[in-house]
Amino acid sequence: MTTKIKSFDELKSVQGRLKAGRDPKKPCITICVGTGCLAYGTQKLVDNFREELAKRNLADKIDFRTTGCHGFCERGPMVVIAPEKVFYQRVGLADAGEIIDKTVLKGEIIDRLLYVDPATGVKVVHEDDVPFYKKQTRLVFGLNSKVDPESLEDYLAIGGYSALGKALTGMKPEAIVQEVIKANLRGRGGGGFPAGWKWDATRKAAGEPKYVICNADEGDPGAYMDRSLLEGNPHLVLEGMIIGAFAIGSSQGYIYARNEYPLAIKNITLAIKKAREAGLLGENILGSGFSFDVKINRGGGAFVCGESSALFASLEGRAGEPRAKYTHATDKGLYDKPTNLNNVETWANVPFIIERGADWFASIGTAGSKGTKIFSLVGKINNTGLVEVPMGTKLREIVFDIGGGIPNGKKFKAIQTGGPSGGCIPEKYLDMGIDFDELTKIGSMMGSGGMIVMDQDNCMVDVAKYFTNFLVSESCGKCVPCREGVRRMRDILVDITEGKGREGDVELLEKMATAIIDGSLCALGSSAPNPVLSTIRYFRDEYEAHIKEKRCPSGVCKALITYSVDAEKCTGCTVCAKVCPTRAASGERKKAHTIDVAKCTKCGACRESCKFDAIIVR
Amino acid sequence: MVNLTIDNKKIEAEAGQTILEVARENGIVIPTLCSNEALEPSGACRMCVVEIKHGKRTRIVTSCLYPVAEGLVVETKSERVLAARRLVLQLLLARCPESKQLKEMAQDLGIEPEPRFTPDKDSSKCILCRMCVRTCEKVVGVCAIGFSYRGAEKNVCTPFKEDSVSCIGCGACAYVCPSGHIEMETTDSGDARKIWGRTFKMKTCKVCGRYFAPEDQLAFISRTSGVPVEDLAVCISCR
Amino acid sequence: MEQKVKEIIQQYSGDKSYLVPILQDVQKEFNYLPKDALCAVSTHLSVPISRVYEVVTFYKAFSLKPKGRYQLSLCMGTACHVRGAELIARNVEDILGIKEGETTADLEFSFETVGCLGACALGPVVVVNGEYHGHMNIAKSTKLLKTLGKKVGTDDNQD
Questions:
Q1: The model's pTM
Q2: A126, A415, B177, B239: which has the fewest C-beta neighbours closer than 10 Å?
Q3: Domains of chain C: residue spans and CATH
Q4: Crossing angle of the two packed helices A173-183 and A234-248, in degrees rounded to 10
Q5: Which of B42, B43, B91 sits opposite A485 (nearest CB)?
Q6: Looking at this predicted complex, what is its ipTM?
Q7: What are C61-77's pLDDT values in tens digits?
Q8: Does residue A223 belong to the interface with chain C, where contact is any CB pair within 8 Å?
Q9: Cβ pair A344, A226 in contact under 8 A
């Protein structure tokens, strides 16, 4: 698309033309090439398809589209064949020829590539019937499977940028802000602050220029929704930003993307270039007289840069230390100018709100939390992936119905939401509906959407130690409560996991937590105690076992566990002896083996390799 | 002018002032570790926290940065405030067990060290109050020292921890350092001083003949002000 | 070296706010950040060297020491952690004889742990020079190192 679209009418006709040029009955092979699927080696499969299509001279008879993440990451590589939307999962990297010959050309189904519902044993043929997808409401994320992120035409063909056209030509900036306020779109990055109010405050603030920023830093470990949105549908995010900029009165925007997301950065860079060429970004957008452009800047590897004032510092080329001053970013943000910072997913929701209206958006979700939310469901879960559900959906549904429950017959123990700033939620709250305020009430928070599932083999004290350790390495070091306080909390937790915990440690942790929450300069410090507090709240018995009995009930904390062989289950296969790095595990073939506790380093290799569940860890 | 209350005392203050400034003007003592009149507040030590009430919400904020407002109610010694300050000092005492100044402050405020915090073994006295770096950057304008690393590894040093190339030997950083961490050695005769790995030759005052400033510092002032070095070679007493 | 640094700075129009991406590009060019390159950045971008040093040491992406021929990144994100990444980290450290964040003396291997790679379905994950290895476990990590040429002690355990 090298000629600029000069009006909304022209945009509509381009969209119409592109849509009409796509025959819905034409066979189309779609493959996910999000980072997750690429990690499975999917690029080879893509090349395989291109080769096989060329060999058969079918390149113009069969559409082939690479897309961003579809969300069902557990089952990649994935291929969907339109128009029937036959769904193939765990596709072999050399299966292209077979799929083309059998399914695309003859309509035959390849059984071994079908998803089998573990609950019913039924083989599912069509994408829409896959339980993982069926139970979701894939409003925002669902578009990923329809567009090649490198193609502006794909996005236009599905009506992309209509919301922008409507906003620029049919709505006043103040009205757009009111619409977003009415929709009650709350920030999807973690804070949950009403986006409309932020826009309004920035709009009314004194000072020029005003900046609009997209926070694509996504620092919570285990959360990758923003990456998948930016990789898979960069134009959606861009469209949201342009609408926001128009509403606020900003002509310069920034996308701050985490350095660890090279594909997302590549795709958004290309999207910006193409949008500019098409007159959808830059000078005089769609002939409306409104000009706005976007620059991309990258992070250097610092979780704290997800915090707005630290992000601004990083954008300004400085170390990512948050600002201690009590000013709102909407008044004095980047370069001390009025700045509106929103998360990737927040921006992605904007075009839907403008296109379909605030009332429609507010009809989804709960009283205090509107719309849908994309979560990354990871950890001890069968269906690892990205899920999108309306706010208010029960945790139980997410974990068991969509997530497929816990693997290997293990028992659910807790689910961590909100990342290192959040908390662990125990089983008794599984029937709680997902909601910003409800989550906060039980000691956790929505956060950016990471949902880490834990089972009976996870030690909650170890989990608290893990998060606290993470925050110690990510603290910027400016203020005393965080720099010194969080590391002292970590030291006490390490002691507890090493059997050196003392009476009174839990109470001390609680006391320190309050002072750290009160005294910290920024939200990293003030939320750092949350994982500790929530695990103490719901799993105090584990802390007490570690401290009073020097015992780790889940068999995780190395200093408190012993490895031994269950003589009754052991078949003498000698595998453990082979993998043991210190020759602690030994025995004769076909005879029960033993583990010499003095030599054992508890590395876990034997437990991992034993096929008879004969290694006991207590 | 704004009307606010600090520790139940009704006070009138100028808009734009911070709670700390107003408190000091009215004889209310709030402890600080990183505050200096010559420098913009940094809000790093968190010792000066107070509890404020504006409307229904109460909040813990640093008084060095929070601006006064009409109707603001401030408590400088509430339970939450004292708990936060206690933790800050206990943490710093564990970080710098050798620091005389910290021990004195702890005594003044009635704060005992927390035995569960194992004191750090290195004898550094730096509490990361940031005054040295802020001074070198904003007051002196040289940027010879700066921060490196982050979190508990954060420290003040010269680039690459090497002997400083740009230091002018003015000693301002050693002067503002509240914990005695930055040391400047001066020879008995006063003809040289050593700091940040470099030895600086001192210039004598052309009037009284006493050593008074490093040659490098005078050269720097000459470069930035345009005043010839010779005209600068007069000590403060003789001016 | 100075010329290359100047070229990189030019690509960002000498804009100081791009210090971090500039340093990333310089690091990519030289496999680490040599002191001379940093001094060149300071000079040509007009940023005090103390600030350049602060930024280089603040962000995890930067390395002042040369990296190994094989750069291993083990994901320690929460999902990978609950699936046992910690044990894999200890195993790699044991075999290579270095701690995370370090490089072997022969400059063959660098090992680091990273916050989250966003490939949670494959967790635990190790990336070697951009290539992803998923569903890692202790045994596989040993095998991986062997494939990359590292001699592993347990070889003589085989009977």
A1: 0.94
A2: B239
A3: 2-58 (no CATH), 70-150 (3.40.30.10)
A4: 120
A5: B91
A6: 0.94
A7: 899 999 999 999 999 98
A8: yes
A9: yes
